[in-house]
Design goal:
Order of helices and strands: HHHHHHHHHHHH
Oligomer: single chain
Radius of gyration: 27 Å
Largest sheet: none
Distance between the termini: 55 Å
Shape: globular
Helix content: over 70%
Number of strands: 0
Structural class: mainly alpha
Length: about 325
């Protein structure tokens, strides 16, 4: 709290500096206009008194303010550094992928047991497509909200939505209800807020390490889902496995809410010229376009593997759920 008060005090001084500068410039223009009516020259030196801060001192204060803000952010993160900077976001990504992929090996068997569904295989593609397709809208929505309200708060909301949807899946046995519930489960994706969470706390080489952990968490969640289905489905069943996903999402919420210290809120004015215009130019470069196409291709192949593999193993080779 003492660090937060110091940051607010420094920020208030910086804002006051800017306000005094703007007020001084307005006063100079007003006085210059008044003297011009009497045929006098405008005030020398811009009419600013020696007690008013110069533009150089304002820039110096703003630079010092940003440096102290970064230092306070580092202290507010606490220790151990790994947990506060990377582990909570990685845990959210792992739990999300675990919950999304868990139903993939189970869905063909569940739909086959629904008596009044004539063609259960016809529902497999739509349910999984809606789930992963809704993630696109979720990425855009939660990314914008993370910029506005902070990544930590939006991560908590996304994981609460995951917990509700995973829990509701445990009580869904009809393809129509699964289509709706899994669409919302895909929408509550924490991937973009988790990325923003890391960007708020890591700098330089730490980013590479943090994003590497997130990628490992996503793959680990997919593999863990298959393992849980193989070994625990005969004991827990459909409801138990999906309830486990809901509990894991709530654990991620607890870690994000009560274990991770919140960053001090700040309204330090950043350079407005480095906004969306620069991002748009970067997105049009060959390196970024190539990276996006590669990621899209890998995601498509992974989703095909996740969705089609259980059906092929069941239909062509007669595999049971555990196999």
């Amino acid at each position: 709290r003492g660090h937060e008060r110091a940051l607010k005090k420094r920020h208030s001084a910086t804002v006051a500096c800017k306000i005094r500068k703007i007020t001084t410039m307005g006063a100079v223009e007003s006085r210059s206009s008044s003297f011009a009516d009497f045929g006098m020259a405008s005030l020398p030196g811009g009419g600013a008194s020696s007690s008013e801060p110069s533009s150089a001192s304002c820039r110096q204060n703003l630079t010092q303010d940003r440096g102290e803000e970064q230092d306070i952010r580092s202290r507010a993160e606490g220790s151990p550094r790994f947990w506060t900077k990377t582990a909570p976001a990685a845990l959210c990504v792992l739990v999300d992928y675990f919950g999304l992929v868990t139903i993939a090996p189970l869905l063909p068997y569940l739909l086959a047991e629904v008596d009044h569904v004539e063609d259960p295989d016809a529902w497999l593609g739509p349910i999984m497509s809606v789930q992963f397709g809704a993630g696109i809208a979720g990425h855009l929505c939660w990314g914008a909200l993370s910029d506005r309200f902070g990544a930590q708060r939006i991560l908590i909301i996304a994981m609460l939505g995951d917990a509700a949807c995973f829990g509701a899946t445990a009580f869904c046995a009809e393809p129509q209800s699964l289509l709706l519930v899994r669409g919302f489960a895909g929408f509550f994706t924490p991937l973009v807020p988790a990325t923003a969470f890391v960007l708020e706390r890591c700098r330089g080489p730490e980013l590479v390490d943090a994003f590497g952990k997130q990628a490992a968490a996503a793959l680990s969640g997919s593999v863990l889902a298959d393992g849980v289905v193989a070994f625990l489905y005969p004991v827990l069943g459909w409801a138990g496995v999906n309830a486990m996903s809901a509990v894991a999402a709530l654990i991620a919420v607890v870690s994000m809410k009560w274990v991770v210290p919140a960053l001090p809120r700040t309204s330090v004015v950043e350079d407005s010229t480095a906004g969306p215009q620069g991002a748009a130019r970067a997105l049009c470069t060959g390196e970024v376009v190539t990276s996006m196409l590669t990621a899209m291709s890998m995601g498509w192949l992974l989703d095909v593997l996740v969705v089609i593999r259980p059906e092929v193993l069941r239909e062509q080779f007669g595999f049971a759920v555990r196999q």
